[in-house]
Amino acid sequence: MSRQSTTNPHDNDVLMSRPGKWTLTIITMLRVEPRRFNDLKRAGGISQKTLTLTLRELERDGFVTRTMFATIPPRVDYELTALGRELLELADSLKSFADRNGALIQEARARFDASGGEPVIKLVHSL
Question: The pTM is what?
Answer without folding.
Answer: 0.71
